[in-house]
């Protein structure tokens, strides 16, 4: 399928979603790009041959977030009265966090440059973040008289903790890749020329494991957030019961036993 504002590729069991509007620094508030991101997430969810998806941006930016020109002219998703604007957010950009959050396939954000505002939130919607040394992160909504309308208040505190998330959101301070690694916002920092290769290495390290088990593992981690221990244990037991009856589990046991002769 041909896309207008993203590039989608499949290489073996790894999918690549590239935001492809470098002319507007990969702003993600337009209807076309929102539709295409959502469609790709649905496509990947249905394809059991895909085990991991990498998300990145074309050009020098990961994503600058909202389209400033549209905000100035109050057009596109930024048009209408307050009630219409609320509807625009609910029916527009908020479809992206829902699509990524409920995508059972593990996701990696390859942050190749600035990830600002909704771009920072987009990176946080992914399960793992690897940053280029040129990456910058900013939860900068307050500085332009806004708040995060796309789920940043949900994702960011879960990654770096409530206090640090509040600090970044209230000061609107933009931090570099190495500070992002220090506070746990990203897992690793690499050179710009090595970013894609490093993310691909991690992706294939993940992708070598069974697709259905990976999806259950991600679902368990997501559903465990904010739940009581008893609820998580019950969910874990249910998922584990399913895993014990998969051929992947049987094959793994056979492999372990064949390497440990005499094990009783």
Structural notes for this entry:
Helix content is 48%, strand content 15%. With 264 residues, the chain is an alpha/beta fold. The strands form 2 sheets. Strands 1-2-3-4-6-9 form a 6-stranded mixed sheet, with helices on both faces. Strands 5-7-8 form a 3-stranded mixed sheet. Helix 6 packs across helix 7. The protein is globular. The relative contact order is 0.11. The model has no long low-confidence stretch (mean pLDDT 95).
- Mean pLDDT across all residues, rounded? 95
Strand content range: 5-15%
The number of distinct helices, counting runs of at least 4 residues, comes to 12
User: How much is the radius of gyration in Å?
Assistant: 20 Å
- Tell me the distance between the termini: 53 Å
Tell me the total number of β-strands: 9
Short description:
The chain is an alpha/beta fold and 264 residues long. It contains twelve helices and nine strands. Strand 2, helix 1 and strand 3 form a beta-alpha-beta unit.
List the helices and strands and how they pair.
Layout: E1 6-11, E2 14-19, H1 31-46, E3 52-57, H2 68-73, H3 82-91, H4 95-101, E4 107-111, E5 114-116, H5 118-125, E6 128-132, E7 136-138, H6 152-160, H7 162-171, E8 175-176, H8 177-182, E9 188-190, H9 195-207, H10 211-224, H11 229-243, H12 247-258
Parallel strand pairs: 2-3, 3-4, 4-6, 5-7, 6-9
Antiparallel strand pairs: 1-2, 7-8
